[in-house]
Known about the structure:
By secondary structure, the chain is α+β, with helices and mostly antiparallel strands. The chain has helices spanning about 20-25, 40-45, and strands spanning about 5, 30-35.
Amino acid sequence: xxxxxxxxxxxxxxxxxxxxxxxxxxxxxxxxxxxxxxxxxxxxxxx
Length: 47
């Protein structure tokens, strides 16, 4: 079965970027990807 990652740059635009990780998890995704990873510090993104 294929595994898909949520692209947080394109999906869940109705919530602020840092809240999109939780939105993706709530939607059933176990992986994410996003464009421009250097816009946020790793401490902001890390779980």
